[in-house]
Amino acid sequence: MKILKSIPFDTEGPQPLVREIPAGEVYPVEALGPLRAAVEAVQGSTQAPIAIPAASALAAASLAVQGFADVETLGGFVPVSLYFLTIARSGERKSSSDKPLLQGLREYEREQSENYDVASKSWAKDSELYDARKKSALRDAVSANRDKRTAAEADLAALGDPPEAPKLPDRTASEPTLEGLFRAFQQGQPSLGLFSDEAAQFLGGHAMNADNRMKTLGGLNRLWDGSEIQRTRAGDGVYTLRERRLAMHLMAQPVAIYGFLSDPLTSGLGFLPRSLICEPESSIGQRLFANMRRDDASLDAFAQRLKAILSNAMPTLDDGRTLKPARLTLTSDARAQLVEFSDEIERMQLPGGTLSHITGAASKIAEQAARMAGVLTLWTDLEAREVEATTMADAITLARFYLSEASRLASAATVSAEIDRAETLRKWLLENWPHPDITLRDVVRLGPNPLRESPKARAALALLERHGWLVALAPGTVIRGAARKEAWQIVQGARQI
Questions:
Q1: Tens of pLDDT along 437-483?
Q2: pLDDT at 254
Q3: I want to staple 470 with a disulfide (CB 3.0 to 4.6 A). Which of 1, 5, 321, 465 is the partner?
């Protein structure tokens, strides 16, 4: 093995590449209003970070009420649908936090599934009878006997439209394709939820692969906006979906979601700004049995309220499938609070401002506050038609938290992508590169594909230098027969680490 020339370096040697991310703010649980007791009950029993059950409760409440009313914002009326992305490592009790808050939903779905089975059998019999009568009438209609033909035509007219199939009962999906989701809206309920406590399957599945990601993100954006969906597909025919509503809560481990967050498509197409994101500080290692608290009464009350709202018939047009939501206006005081909040956030987006790096999320945060205020209002009173100032104040507090998380995690996602590229380069240098030194030109020409651009290659080399894997050589150092402007030497011992 070729002996490398000794290069001075920190006596600790090369350091691991780590994702540096500052701690987040404390979750404002007091702002959850009518949802607080259930969220604290889940946190008490699981000892998971409270932001996890908080997102689950808000998402479940959004699913329950989104079909009943739209809420006023500074730009008009919008759905109260909420999208959540929760990042938590394995063992953080994501499922244990989600399950009790969705108990009422799952009970409702089971009951509706049983009713659907009965209705489907009845529909099948009615369809057979309809088809038999239609077939008989058509046969008589082609008869040479004029009287028989006239009677058959009357029978055909009297038959009317065929029996309508019962609507699919499911209110949630965990990993649908976009086409599957649209089909569920066409054949099922006008208000659905995309919920998953292991969203890696959805984020890494067919709907989000390289060929479909742009289409899927665009479709999810339109559903959040409340826009109509037009479909023209072979086999599905032509149809338009109007006034459908989708709530979402995707939970995933950092390794599964950071690549998704750093993808320019997710932010550039507007999906991330439409999502309320958080990565709470881990509680693993602190969840002592002595600190466990149970509050079954609060959880039961939440489940019963969720089930009761879902059992209410959503307002629809005559077709029974197109929602006709009421309008939830803002009181003058609530509107004044929202205006003040919106103006404050707008000023912070100026070049060099604290929110200039997340203008997409910042520009939508006032609307997010209005949506959350609408959810909290309708959860308390499904017949309410105004958002009060106290509820708007709570929603703005929640919005501030999620905006702070968006700011923190946007920076972390960028750092994570840089670290991923640096780690790719580090492994390539140690496993494939035959020389004791490396130049920028070497990396761009011969290095891993993600580093075939000078800015990315230079950033990766600089990161490896900061962590002690490389030492910069003086400009003009002769490397393999030529003076080099930018070159580094691999630290002695690095190949053995």
A1: 999 999 999 999 889 889 999 999 998 988 889 999 999 999 998 99
A2: 84
A3: 465
Close Cβ partners of 439 (under 8 Å, ≥ 6 residues apart): 479, 484, 486, 487, 488
**Furthest C-alpha separation in the chain:** 109
Inter-axis angle of helices 103-141 and 51-65, nearest 10: 30
Name the percent of the chain in helix, strand, coil, to the closest 5. Answer: 55, 15, 30
| DSSP SS3 for 178 | helix
Residue 189 contacts residue 148 (beta carbons within 8 Å): no
Angle between helices 332-347 and 389-431 (to 10 degrees): 30
- Cβ-in-10-Å burial (0-12, 13-18, 19+) of 216 comes to buried
Instruction: Label residues 385-407 b or e (16+ Cβ within 10 Å = b).
Output: eebbbebbbbbbbbbbbbbebbb
Closest CA to 51 of 307, 283, 247: 283
Is the pLDDT at 56 greater than 60? The verdict is yes
Gyration radius (Cα) of the chain, Å: 29
Q: Residue 148 corresponds to which tokens in the numbers above? A: 């028989």
CB of 338 within 8 A of CB of 392?
yes
Q: Are 457 and 447 in contact (CB under 8 A)?
A: yes
Backbone phi and psi for residue 281, each to the nearest 5 degrees, phi listed first: -65, 135
Whether the Cβ atoms of residue 153 and residue 196 lie closer than 8 Å to each other: no
| Residue 19, both tokens | 């994702």
The continuous run of DSSP H or E covering 280 comes out as none
Whether 44 shows a pLDDT value over 70: the answer reads yes
Burial per residue of 446-482, b for 16 or more beta-carbon CB atoms within 10 angstroms, e otherwise: ebbeebeeeebbebbbbbbeebbbbbebeeebebeee
Residue 363: what are its φ and ψ, rounded to 5°? -70, -20
Q: How far apart are CA 437 and CA 94, in angstroms?
A: 46
The residue written with tokens 């959540």 in the block is 84
Q: Could you identify the residue written with the tokens 């999320």? A: 361
Give the torsion through C-alpha atoms of 130, 136, 137, 143, to 10 deg: 170
- The two tokens of residue 462 are 């600089």
Query: CA-CA distance, 349 to 168, in Å (whole number)?
Result: 45
Q: Distance (Å, rounded) from C-alpha 181 to C-alpha 170?
A: 11
> Taking 60 as the threshold, does the pLDDT of residue 495 lie above it?
no
